[in-house]
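Subject: mismatched residue count in predicted assembly?

I count 1400 residues in my input, but I want to confirm that the predicted structure covers every chain. Input:
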Amino acid sequence: MVEAVNSSLGKMLLEEVSPVVMVLCTPLVEETFLKNGLSFVETLKPFCNFSNIDVPVRTSGDQLYRLKKFTLRLFNASDIKQPNVEVAKQRLEHVITQAGEKVFHDLESDPPQITDILSNPESEIAPTWFQYYNKELIRTLSFSDHEAFDHPVACLLVASSKDEEPLNKFVDLFNTNRLPSLLNDGVMDPKILKHFLLVHDNQDATTERLTSKVLSEMRSTFGNNECNLLCTNSSKEGNVEHQANPWASFKSSVPAEKLGFALTGDDIGEIKDLMQEFASRHIIPYMEQKVRDLNQQISATRKGLRNQIKNLWWRKGKDDVPDSTKGSIYTFSSTESQIRILGDYAFMLHDYELALSSYRLISTDYKLDKAWKHYAGVQEMMGLAYFISDQSIKEAEYCMENAFSTYMKLGKSGFQNATRCGLWWAEMLKARDQYKEAASVYFRICGEEPLHAAVMLEQASYCFVLTKPAMLHKYGFHLVLSGDHYKICDQVNHAIRTYRSAISVYESTTWSHIKDHVYFHIGQWYAIVGMNDVAVRNMLRVLDCGNQSKSTQEIFLRDFFDIVKKTGMKHEVVGLRLPVINMSSLQVIYEDHRTYASQASALVEESIWQSLEDDIIPSLNSGKSNWLELQSKLLPKKYKESNVCVVGESVKLDLEFRNPLLISTSVTSVSLICELTANSDDLKLDKEPSSLSLETEHNQVTTSGLSSFTLSEVDFTLGGGEKKLVRLTVTPSEEGILKIVGVRWELSGSIVGVHYFQSVPTKAKTNKAKRKNKLTPTDALKFLVIKSLPRLEGSIDHLPDKLYAGDLRYLVLELKNNSESPIKNLKMKISHPRFVNPESHEEELTPGFPDCLKKGPEQNTVQRETSRTSVFAFPKDVSLQGDRSLRWPLWLRAAIPGTMSLYFTIYYEMENVSSIMKYRTLRMHYSLQVLPSLETSFEITPSPSRLQEFLVRMDIVNRANSDAFEIHQLSTVGCRWGISLLQPVDTILPSKSILPGQGLSCFFMIKDCRKPGIEEEKTTSILPSQTDTKLITQDDDEKFFDIVNSPLASFHESERSCHGTSDQLSPNTVDFILISRLAKSSNPSAEQDLLKILSHHSCHNRIRSSIPLSWSLDGPKTMYHDFSTSFCEIKLKMVIRNTSDGFLSVSINTIDGLPDAAAPTPSSGNLSGWRYVPAITEEMKLTSDVMGSRLGKPPPSMESSPPFIWSGSSSTKVQIQPLSTTEIPLQVSVFSPGTYSLSTYELVWELFEHENASSATSGTCQGYPYYITVLQSE
Amino acid sequence: MANTACFIIVGRNDIPIYEAEVGSAPKREDAAQLHQFILHAALDVVQDLAWTTSAMFLKSVDRFNDLVVSVYVTAGHILFNGIKSFFQEVHELYIKVLLNPLYLPGSRITSSHFDTKVRALARKYL
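Triage response: the counts match. Full output below for your records.
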């Protein structure tokens, strides 16, 4: 903490509360001094501050002390009056305006950083003109009637030696009529010290003698001590230049070097001596004397208990006097004023103890008198005296507070005093480091007048910076308040200055309203002072004002564009926030060796393509002996690190623009900013052994310029809050290195927004990362442009986007190479071979679709090549060049319902182009929506009667939403199974078409056409026509669809491989193909839809059976036998087939005679209620319900039948290999003619997983009824 | 009497995470920014006070003309500027927001549910 005296308030007090000397001079004196550009008072002013006067002083006490610092204030007599309020106001305004002009040039610079502000030393935080302003402000209150320190202590009478009768002049000067009114009307004491000064101008050499004469006359008249001679203007030429001009700081309006040019160093020394003498010899002793006198007088009248009581009594009596605050009831001679004078004199003589005691004495008096203004004045002085004498801080503050509030109570009249009091108070608090309190004091003295308030608020704000810790929020707020006030009184420069400082606080905040407010206003104001470019720079910050109301946004934008127009030029703004660019949406689409057929295919993830292309792209690492060597030959290092694009092929860039505002904005001329540099330099630096093609490039030095690439321009309008994805392209037309640097756009034709894409310094990217095509900013935006290459374009005609499951279409893939150089070695891979199947040769279908699928007259049963690879290689002779296009037929079949993405990739190699790029791929992507259509399921059960025949139940459900289908044909695949319809479908389905949601069951019989027992032999004996059956006949001569030769077969292959590959082609499965078509009546508008054919493939349908074996009993049905000779022996043959994969052991038990009714057959259908449930064990007994019930109810004819017996062995046990057949001979002996049911046998089987397995499942099967009729032979 | 109030939840680093202009007075264009200014300036005082007291509710910490700033400091030093029971209720709401796993502490609260609740509370208490 600074010592009170040395604090700024201390210095201020020393200056402001100091003896006043009234100067009275003749016009000739003024004239003399005006030669120097200064008035008389001004000439003397710099010499009135004595920093080391060293005068011994004794006031009330006996103690002598030495006065070190002392100041005199000189005033012309005419100035000794209360200043006119208006004039004072104008002067203050002038001070501010001047200061504003000074700061004008700083305004263009960037706003200060908050850290800079905080690191500044305290004295530099607030502009220096504040002190000056405060001084001026305090001066507006000088010579007030309730205070005594402005009362003149002495009077300096000055006459010139050129004056006629100078002695009379002196008398005239102190003529009471000419004295200030304050002295005359009794506010101030007119009886003051007088001092006489004769001025001699050395430039008037002639009067020198006269001067000494006048001086001696003066001395005799006014006294020897009171008269002085001052000789000036010693310099004849008047060209003295003062190194440190003492007047410079006092008078700034005239250039400093002009001041005092006629005064030599001696003259100045003389003035200095004169003033020092005047102060030390005359004024101080005079004041000393006066203090002592007054003190004595007051002690006599007021000190002591008696006087106090008397005084109180007397004051009580004056209570009734009204209006004690108004008018000057206290003249200088009143006791109160005398005490006040005593106090002020003591204060000025730095005897603060005496001053305090006098002030204390008088303050109670004033309080009792309710002379509030006087009271406040005294309190104020007390506060200052406490402060400066380093006494109780609390007391000092209390007094100031008291004074301040008392002044405030006086209302308007007291406000100015309150202001001064406040300023002092604030200074006092500042000196004590109580900045926060100081700020609040400044805030309290703001008052109504805006300019005044602005200055005070600004001072308050600086206090907040100085508090520890700095209160930056408050700082900013008060600066903004202050700026607003400055603006109200048109001090725009100051307004900008304060806002500029405030920006440093708010810059990083996210308080949007604040930010918008500050930037918008400072922008406006910069525009007012004509700094349009700075205005624009600030206004730009406001443009992203999405949170403001629509009207505010409109105002912002309107003003912004107004200012921009004023500047009259296009502004290029980096980082314009209107519209906002969503960098995460940035996507670069370019084609190197990968080319894309359409936009959609370019957006597909790279990994999908890569997995698809894995086996068709030649691997770089394979083949050659040294892969390192190979790669470096193929791709110089530089190329590997950057993306590659081809001359003439555009690089596309997708970028999302978002309008942050509620009002719509139109954005025009959006284009990329690119750089294309010839890569020769780069390559030389590389010193890589480059291939031949690169050598040629070296010679073609391309310069960067607009001509080397073309850019697309896009215009669009963004509605409020709208987002738009914009595609921008750049097409290089020369080789080199292309960099996409950023994007530019125009707003209303005058603002050019520029957004540079973040350019992070290239880190060593691994090759892997690059291949993955991760869009790291630099990698993605830097391209190596290589020579023009052929580029294949491809499309698939008429590819439907919506179709039913099973739909079979004929499509054409059209490939085109626009360049002259041919391409070869075309290969294609399709992501879903299940869906798409290329035809093996290029030719148009002769009969047209779908007739081509039908069986021709000649039965061409050549087996298609079934070994399918996933890569389809076009014939070697296919080469594309020029305008020729290649039309390659494709088959499409919607295999499963759902949304499918089909990916095609076509690999091709360039011929005759020696380039770093040997091959390219064309990627095509299509998506299909496959709707569910017919759903089929098959159940195959063995026929009970015939070993080779199976019953098939087909269930069809139409899952489509709206369309009906007609079923056309059901075929079995392969040559093994013949199929026949059990019942015409027309009888079940008269409408002939299956409506949406309708289900249908059909029954078929399939027959194994192979010769039994010979499993491996290929059977071609069956006619192909037997494998198809027509379900609904439209017309009789309609042919079957060929499922062997047509694409249906290959689709079936892929279906097979899709379904259950684990199944090792079990021969016991049947594959069906159901061919259907859309019903004619369902959609009359779309005629061509009728051509649609749907094929439904059902693969690996197993023959379902509960027991692992099937058998049949063969033998004669009817026999003639002569029973008279012997009984009849009939030979039978039982064929047992193992239908399972395991090893089967079967024993045949024959039962003679009728079965007993009490036989323990648990499967009796007559039992109800309780039923024995056998425990599920390994040995599970499987019995056929059907057989059981039959057994329980033998046919009535059997009751009367005489018995027969099974002859031969009663039990035979056989082992049957998996899927093989065994024959067992059986014999029955019949004793009488009749019809017999030979079902009285059972087969007990055990099934093993493999030959030596111990665990087995077993079961018993009852015999089938087999009737044999034996007749008596004739 | 028509009153006006501005309620702001301030997160760490003085970042406002929720703002609402509540109160029955007709909206003035400049009210929003004035309120922001005042509340922003009050943060200085709050920062001083928050560490000196254990109370969550700091009554009228700062004032500007006839606008009084009251503050409710949560344990996590998130400030609620704006009156006691109101604060308490909003604090509960705020905790609910914090419990939302999708809410990143310190980010702006955009929940419309939170907004309507706060406004309802403001009507009830202010």
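The mean pLDDT of chain A is 73. Marking this ticket as 'not a bug'.
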